[in-house]
Give the backbone structure.
Amino acid sequence: MFGLGALLLIIQFSAGALGAGTGFRARRSDAERNEAWEAAVVKANAFVAQLNVTEKANMVTGKLGLDTPCIGNIIPIPRLNFKGLCLLDGPTAMNRADLVSVFPAGLTAAATWDKDLIYERGKALGEEFKAKGGHVMLGPVAGPLGRHQLGGRNWEGFSPDPYLTGLAMQATIHGIQDAGVQSCSKHFIGNEQETQRSNSFSPDSKETQAISANIDDRTMHELYLWPFADAVKAGTVSVMCSYNRMNQTYACENPEILNRLLKEELGFPGYVVSDWFATHSGAKSINAGLDLTMPGVKDIVGLLTQDSWFGGNIPTMIQDGSISDERLDDMIRRVMTPYYFLDQDKEDFPTVDQSLVFTLAASSGLSLPAGTPIIAARDVRADHAEVIRKMGAEATVLLKNVDSILPLRKPMNIGVFGNDAAEPTEGLTFPSFAFEIGTLTIGGGSGTGRHTYIVSPLEAIKARAREYGARVQHVLHNTVVARNDFTGIYPPPDVCLVFLNTFASEGYDRSVWEADWNSTQVVDNVASHCPNTIVVTHSAGINSMPWANNPNVKAILAAHLPGQESGNSIVDVLWGAVNPSGKLPYSIAANPADCDIPVVTAPRPSADSATAWQSDFTEGLLIDYRHLDARNITPLYEFGFGLSYTAFAVSGKLEIERLVANISAVPATFEKPYPPGGNPALWTPLLKISTTVKNTGSVAGATVPQLYLSMPKEATPVGTPPQVLRGFEKVFLEPGEETTVGFELMRRDVSFWDVGAQEWVVPPGTMGLRVGFSSRDQGVRRTVGLRV
Ligand SMILES: *[C@@H]1O[C@H](CO)[C@@H](O)[C@H](O)[C@H]1NC(C)=O
Ligand SMILES: *[C@@H]1O[C@H](CO)[C@@H](O)[C@H](O)[C@H]1NC(C)=O
Ligand SMILES: *[C@@H]1O[C@H](CO)[C@@H](O)[C@H](O)[C@H]1NC(C)=O
Ligand SMILES: *[C@@H]1O[C@H](CO)[C@@H](O)[C@H](O)[C@H]1NC(C)=O
């Protein structure tokens, strides 16, 4: 077991509208949610009115120890029948818990481009948290957005495209909260790199502050804040402020982002909770908008080395006037309203599974006091393996398929190569570093989860092959493949499946683009023997693929991090039980440098070394495909791309329906405070675009028509991307079938953030609209002028 150091390390790993057409239906409409929220506010106010100041301090300060089972805890107040709050890490599984499911990562979910399925994933996650007695799931993630291709936590979030991430946030939040669990949208904001994300101390205790993300106003609104606006609009009840500084001020004590942007401009009515150890002040943070600090006060076993900035200091702050009574009550009202809003006060809300103390201890390398009675874990997995398997298959992106080598047609001699095909050999929980032998299903750090099983690719391939009597030969050591040693293989396989992986974890950034473990040598060697090589990647992020154009590499599948059903999901795609319909939620550049914004790895030479870590977001809006488009660089595989076993065409022209007669330049004013999401006029649909999509091939399957919008160059500021994603729908079609797909554009979708006016503005002039099957597909186009 690991010592206390490992424990502290683990704890520091931060605990961490319906689209057009079909679309999931959230349990409550906006209006019903607002009504339920108001009723919950009344209850929260009544609760606050009964508290004394000690209790008030406890309500805004966490407590962590082996006598409190969750990674974040608000202690109960028995005299008021308040049973406390339990916060647990997501966003991909309930971490530090036994008998839970390990789901596909956010990145994988995004690759489905399927709002319904993303909702189902969120709902299943929420059901597991609730069944364990968890009140708050720490997730979903919209920050990091993915500015850096090698960011260590990108896989926890969805996509570097804010529109895709925004809708994935919305669907996930509806899913989690429809299951009766609080979502906590994180990390707010600018936490794009792990390197120096938080403050650090030299051996002589000299403090170096966290990196400062320096983001201009327009970039903030159109890129990094955008998906958080969707999250607030969807009703997320809590938001986690991040480790980093933002414009030189720590995120959790930055009034510009917490009070002004989040609470005022976006009308966020819930609570802001600090990332674990991300609070650096008391009254300053509270007055900036921080409502709850985590992990909280020192506990009996000395889990925490420093006491909280809140806790026992709160009564003093009240006494000396550095915070007001009203503000303290506001904090507690914000913490408690979600609890009533989601009926977590009801008798039938499950009690916290006390077995969580064992997994908390196990994942922290701690022992519980001798004689602690063993408590069996509550099994909350239900039938969630089904949605996991389905999503793993639907998220798989087919990047290359020469000679229609896929789907496989009963090959009798199958070669399987690479460490990623194998059963895990070092346990079923991935910590913060990679294992050499074993398939990769999820990343490391606070966002990981404990498997009860993993279906490895090899296991699933053998099971499939056995059904029709095929031979399966395998070499699982990459070192053996890398030295070109295939003496163990005879006769040569008809088809060679190479499985590669790329690990990433919270706490550090990746350093190379290639998949891990000598991947290029492995692919080159297999391909040199095998003209029918198929490469599958299980990756926590974007990879370069130096072997992509090798003629013997006939097919490539990017399967990301699929969760516990990994092998079943990929076999479903390989043998054609599922027709692949995943699309890249990012671009793969031909040359990594084409699209790279390097992580900052050193402080800036500066007089004040304590504050010298600076990250200037000078590329503005131009990340990922927006950058490639602006520079006219052709990628290897573009954003939105993914092949199918059938073919699709946009068969109709674009129909444009104006939903509002005269479109003004700016939204109608609305008196503050704003409802969740900010000025409602921004969310008003202005246009409906529709066209017809047809399955022109011979196999049933799904595809994703995507709507891209180009704003007029002459009427928008410098740095406006040539095109931005503004709509997508996943549609399933039988061979020959066609259907109409519609995209509604809201005011925000057709506006840019005007820094001078401090407002979203619809530019005059002609907008370009295009519907195609990727960011580079010709598709069908039309232009439209919106303003009269
Ligand atoms: C507040 O109430 C608690 C009981 O929940 C009690 O133990 C505590 O002493 C009270 N504190 C003050 C300052 O009255
Ligand atoms: C950060 O600083 C930039 C440059 O001065 C400014 O445009 C932006 O509005 C600031 N953002 C916040 C949230 O303070
Ligand atoms: C990569 O292959 C080379 C040559 O076989 C070997 O020396 C090296 O240890 C391998 N590296 C890894 C990370 O497996
Ligand atoms: C729309 O604008 C035109 C031209 O400015 C005006 O004549 C018309 O009355 C407006 N219609 C509405 C519904 O506001």
Q: What stands out?
A: The domain at 385-578 is CATH 3.40.50.1700 (Rossmann fold). The chain has a mean pLDDT of 94. The first strand starts at residue 61 and ends at 63.
